[in-house]
Design brief:
Elements: E1 3-4, H1 10-17, H2 21-27, E2 29-33, H3 35-43, E3 48-53, E4 65-69, H4 71-77, E5 86-91, E6 104-109, H5 114-127, E7 131-134, H6 144-150, H7 153-156, E8 159-161, H8 165-174, E9 178-188, E10 199-204, H9 212-215, E11 220-223, H10 235-249
Parallel strand pairs: 1-4, 3-4, 6-7, 6-10, 7-8, 9-10, 9-11
Antiparallel strand pairs: 2-5, 3-5
């Protein structure tokens, strides 16, 4: 297997560019780091492209293009400061539309922190939700930081860019979904009205909450009770509590 030692190599330049959203959009590819995550991507059916590895690996046979690289080259391509020995480019998961939306959805309205987006994605997968709706202003779902936080759930659980989010919610409500939106002035989450079998949980921006247009589409505004002295919860923590409770009730 050919070994690449220069960061100026054309393949390295192409893969290195995938750390940026523009290159991901233009190529339809994104970067996955580490053997565990590579295996998750392959097992989830994502289409592999190029593999870079510091050492010979049996995974190379599963990629159309595989190259050995030096540690310095791998560090230049990967987003993490201490890469786990290999990375690879995969095709982005195929798009899905509101026409085949699953019954239980999480919608993010301007959630900008990549760690929160990825953690909510992972928790939605664990709790049994069917997919994510991503409104304007959310962190790029296929950025390295989001995918690290999602820990493979981003390969399995579909996400759709729903911009404007309020219009997507309106469309789904017309088809029978109920919308519960987290808001600081909402009613006690545990006293919420029944939502039925089709529902959407909306989590708003860390700084500003949900937008007025999204608020207008909510069947219920809810918040978790603060029984201690904390004023609020991290968006991903609050979303996790609500998701599990909503699925338990369902």
């Amino acid at each position: 297997m050919e070994k690449i030692t220069s960061v100026k190599n054309p393949l390295i330049a192409r893969l290195r560019a995938l750390k940026g959203a523009k290159a991901r959009r233009e190529t339809g590819l994104f970067l996955v780091e580490g053997e565990t995550m590579l295996m998750e991507a392959l097992c989830s059916g994502l289409m592999p492209h190029a593999l870079l590895s510091e050492e010979e690996t049996a995974l190379a046979a599963r990629f159309p293009e595989a190259r050995l690289v030096t540690r310095g080259v791998l560090e230049a391509v990967c987003d993490t400061k201490t890469p786990q020995g290999m990375c690879a480019a995969f095709e982005l998961p195929g798009p899905w539309s509101l026409e085949n939306a699953p019954d239980a959805l999480v919608a993010l309205d301007g959630v900008q922190d990549p760690g929160n987006v990825g953690t909510i994605w992972r928790t939605a997968d664990a709790a049994g939700f069917g997919g994510l709706l991503l409104g304007a202003g959310c962190a790029d779902p296929y950025s390295p930081k989001v995918q690290r936080a999602a820990m493979g759930s981003g390969f399995r659980l579909p996400a759709i860019a729903a911009e404007p989010l309020a219009e997507a919610l309106q469309t789904l409500r017309a088809r029978g979904w109920k919308v519960a939106a987290s808001a600081l002035d909402g009613a006690d989450f545990y006293a919420r009205p029944p939502l039925g079998g089709r529902f959407i949980l909306v989590i708003g921006s860390e700084a500003h909450g949900i937008s007025d247009a999204v608020r207008a589409q909510a069947d219920a505004l809810v918040k978790l009770p603060m029984r201690g002295k904390a004023e609020s919860l991290n968006a991903a923590v609050a979303a996790g509590i609500m998701m599990y409770e909503m699925m338990r009730e369902r």
